[in-house]
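Structural prep section.
Before we set up the soaks we want a predicted structure of the protein with adenosine monophosphate in place, mainly to decide which crystallisation condition to try first. Input record follows.
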Amino acid sequence: MIPLAEARALVLAGVPAPQATEVPVAGSLGLVLASDVRSPSMVPPFDNSAMDGYAVRFEDLAHVPCVLTVSEDVAAGHVATGGVEQGTAIKIMTGAPLPAGADTVVRVEDTVPADGSVEILARPGPGTAVRRAGGDVAVGAPVFESGEVLTARHLGVLAAVGVERVQVYRPVRVAVVSTGDEVVAPSIRPLAPGHIRDSNRPMLIGLLAEMGLEAIDYGIVGDDADALRDTFARAATECDAVITSGGVSMGEYDLVKRVLTELGGIELWKVAMQPAKPFAFGAIGGTPLFGLPGNPVSVFVAFEQFARPAILTMMGHTSILRPRIEATLAEDVSTDPEKTVFLRVVVEAGPSGRMARLAGGQASNILSATARADAFAVIPIGVSDMSAGDTVELEMFRWSNE
Ligand code: AMP
Ligand code: MG
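Run finished without errors. Recording the tokens verbatim:
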């Protein structure tokens, strides 16, 4: 058996480097910047008011209360026709350009309007409620660095500074294939004796979608060497990575194993982990292939431990592992001391801190419990029994509000 850390290092070393490309900002959500971004313009583009109120000259407020003549109103999106002269004010709305001559805005709450004039009740500090041009981003300023993951907030900033296209690492096209004579499309009704619905493919397509990727669906291939060989070879030619499930364990009909080894540089591993001990990895003509086990929980665990970090690496991400935090076990557990064990747990706020409770049955076919889970409780090699109250390390794949 290969230790998990070693297996993962081999996988990460075996995937191609990310490739840069240019895309419109609108299509860049979730991608990783491949070059630094500098701002071509200022944000805000002009001095403007941060409040609804009156644009004034600070020096006119030496003695408050005082009365200033209101020469005009200026709304957001409009420009005052004149400036603020001594003893006058311009009524101004949030976001409207600060008129010439003004240096301070008195908020409307501190004023009493009259006909053609305004009484100023309070004296704010000089420059109050004025947002300076370039106060957020200056022209030429570094905005984002290569390697940053573009979130919705980044897209907002890029729009504000006027950047329309960005250099990113291109999204990875991932093929998903299910295997097995017993596996049928989830839409099949009624289920024939011995058949089961394909849960791996919808799950894997969804896991990839959660990473911002559109999976390429290669359907279900039965336990037939020619069909498996053709599909794997075609998927490897057409996509950047291939994920298969089923057929890599010890069974006699595990043709996937045979076909994968025949196709080239793919190895079958026994990883010292539970679930998901059998795992195949390698490349067909340079395209990495992840041969996941068949049981749905094993598929999820192997995807999380191998495929997800590897595909994130291919997408240019440098933070590729789930966050790890500690929690208190809510119940006793017994695990295989020769393996890193991934228990599926629900995480709850308890009276004395964060608690981890088994999400349900822990057999590798019980996907319903995995669906309810928030995290893996990672039980390291060498540990066989843990008790309620012990501290356990969690790998979070869902954060809920604690
Ligand atoms: P295998 O490794 O092919 O022997 O599969 C191990 C177990 O996973 C068997 O019980 C299979 O029926 C089940 N299995 C394989 N593929 C899928 C799938 N796509 N969806 C649900 N269960 C599957
Ligand atoms: Mg099978």
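Observations: The domain at 20-41+148-169 is CATH 3.90.105.10 (Molybdopterin biosynthesis moea protein, domain 2).
Flagged for discussion at group meeting.
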